[in-house]
Each structure stands twice: as C-alpha cells, then as structure tokens.
Write the structure tokens for this entry.
Amino acid sequence: MTIKTLSVYTFRNLSDAHLSLSPGFNLIEGQNGAGKSSLLEAVYFLSHGRSFRTLHLDPLVQFGQDKLILQAEIDSFEGQSLSLGIMKTLKGEGQIKIAGEICHSAAELAALLPVQLLNSDSFELLNGGPLFKRQWMDWGMFHVEHSYGSLWKQYQRVLKQRNSAIKTGASASIRCWDESLAAMGEHIARQRAEYMADIIPICSSILARFCDFKISFHYDRGWDASFSLAQALESGLSRDQYLGYTRSGPHRADLRLNLSECPVNNVLSRGQQKWLIYSLKLAQGIFLASKTQKRCVYLLDDLPAEWDDYRQKVLIELLKEMSPQVLITGIGLSHLQEALGDSPVKMFHVEQGRVQEQDTNLEMPLSEDSSLSNSLI
Ligand SMILES: Nc1ncnc2c1ncn2[C@@H]1O[C@H](COP(=O)(O)OP(=O)(O)O)[C@@H](O)[C@H]1O
Ligand SMILES: [Mg+2]
C-alpha cells in the first residue's frame, strides 16, 4: 500500500501541512527542529494510533490547540483507494475513520497501513532486551498471520489471570489456567518458529550485501525446548509461586544474535549494528510482500547519520529492488537523487513546520500548502 496524500493538522509544530506523496521515494529535508521527524511521527500515528516518541497525547497536540487531526488517502493492497483519519483531543476524546466509517480499533489502521520505522531508537532492537525482539517478531506475525493479533491478545488475558492466581491463590486455582495457556502458547511459538525459519535466510542475504560477517540467529521460544509448555508450567509451578509470575511461555521468547559466539551488541560497531537492524526490518517488508501482496511504508528518520557512502548506496539499491514507498528525512538529501536514478522521487522542504514540495530538477518550491479538509472535526 502507498500513501497518496497526507494531511497533518495541529500536530507538533505542523499547523496545516498537506503532502501529495510519491509512491516511491520521498525525500524530506530541512534544518534541525524544522518538523521532519514530526511528519514521520504523523504517519506512524496514523498507522499505530500512537507515537514512537511518547505515550502521551499532550506533547503531540500543537501548543495552544486542543486537538490533533491526521488524514491520509491510501492505495490499499486490494487496489482500492481508502481514506484514513484520526482525531484526538486533549480531553481524551478521539475518533478513527476508515473510508468515512467510524472504527473502534487502532489495529484496523495498522492492518491497512503497515509501517516500518528506522530511526536512532531502532538500536533498541539489538540493545534493549528480549521485549524489542518480540515486538519485531510480532510485527511480522501480525501482518502475515491473520489470526495472530487476537490469539496473542487472548494469550495475554489468560496469562494475566494465571499471574493474579499466583499472587493470591492455591495451586489448583493456578493450574486451572494451564491447559488453555499451554495450547495457545504452543500455537504462538509454532507460528513464530515458522516465521523465523522464513525470515532469517532473507535477513542473512540482505546483510551479506552490506558486509561479509555472518551472524548466527537463535530463536528461543520462551521455555526449555525439551518440554512441552504444559510440562514446563507444571514443573515450574513452585518456582512461579516463589517469583510471583509465570516464567515459561512465548511471552518470554527471545532472538539471540551472535557473531563468533558473542552477542552482536557487544562486538559490532554502531554502524555495523545499523546494517543488521536494517536487514532485520527490510527482510520483514520483503517477506510480507511475498506472502500477502501487502507492501509496507518505510520511514527512515535522519538517514545520512552513521552511514558511509558505500553502504548508503547499497541501501538505496535494496530499496529500489523492493520498491516500497519510502519517506526519508535528513538535513541534506539532494546527494541521494543520483543514486535513486529514474525511481519515482519527490522532494519536500520543511521549515518551521511548513512543508513545501520542491521541483526535483530545479529544487524550487512548487506550490503553497493546500489546506486540510476538516472532515473529522
Ligand atoms: N506540541 C508541540 N507544539 C508545537 N511545537 C512542538 C510541539 N512538540 C514539539 N514541537 C517543536 O516541533 C519542532 C519539530 O521537531 P522535529 O520534528 O523533531 O524536528 P526535526 O526532525 O526536523 O529536527 C521542534 O522545534 C519542537 O520543539
Ligand atoms: Mg528529527
């Protein structure tokens, strides 16, 4: 899917921005503090119903305003044109609209608009503990396996019940959750294992385009591999009671990435870590497209940072081969135009929250922002 138009109203320093985007590359440049990351944040918010920079709404609503509004016209993977909109007020009211209809779950937006973000926080994927690896796996599972989102939610609900029984109850009241927890947990772990088997070779072949070191991937499903989850829950009962929570299950899964037996975050430089992180995330886009015809939108914030020229060219080549829609921000990006060749490219200049499309040949502004149709207000 591609975003055809994006309208951003009173979001951060973007008062009223309207972009008509290229289905290929969109280069968004401007000085520090201009509003580049805020534009990507707006796209992310439309897809996830939340920001990647804060869990709170107040910092997102423009100072002095009482609500934010985001709208987009997308080409869905079924070839239809769809409008998406989200409005949130500081009072806590909100509305999501898909094709003019009110929708009650942000997950529906996420399913329609898969977005992959790569920014300086992406290092958490290698340095931030198993939670970030699980989030990475779950992004893929959610978009590839139809039933995964609801299965995972149900599993979380039963896990919560078992954990409260551990805190308050006798062994029998804990055990009564084990059967359903084990059945769902095994299912999730099996689906994740299949996903890992598919995605790891893709990731390795992308990484080989950047460098010649080989990473070993080890998927840990979250409990001792020689037992079923039912057995692990039973044999770990007294330990769980001592700890106060359920220690075995897919909620404890991990993906270990090693170079010569050492965790990659201990041996790779930041630049090298970046190649690996990009390989992990690009692999997900490639796999998604091959399995479902869905294409994700890539948001690359501050691309030139920490990339040498050679690897930047490799990355652009990879993206050209994948041909997803890409939004790239940076202080200066005109040097990328040559590498992009005849790929569809649009350039935007952001200054103090105002966005202007540039002519890619002349690097001149094309027209003033057109205003937002406030159909969500
Ligand atoms: N709620 C808000 N209202 C108005 N301006 C804001 C708000 N939140 C952040 N800003 C300002 O928005 C500007 C854009 O930030 P950002 O998008 O991160 O810039 P860039 O990525 O271009 O360096 C910054 O100057 C920041 O201080
Ligand atoms: Mg920024």
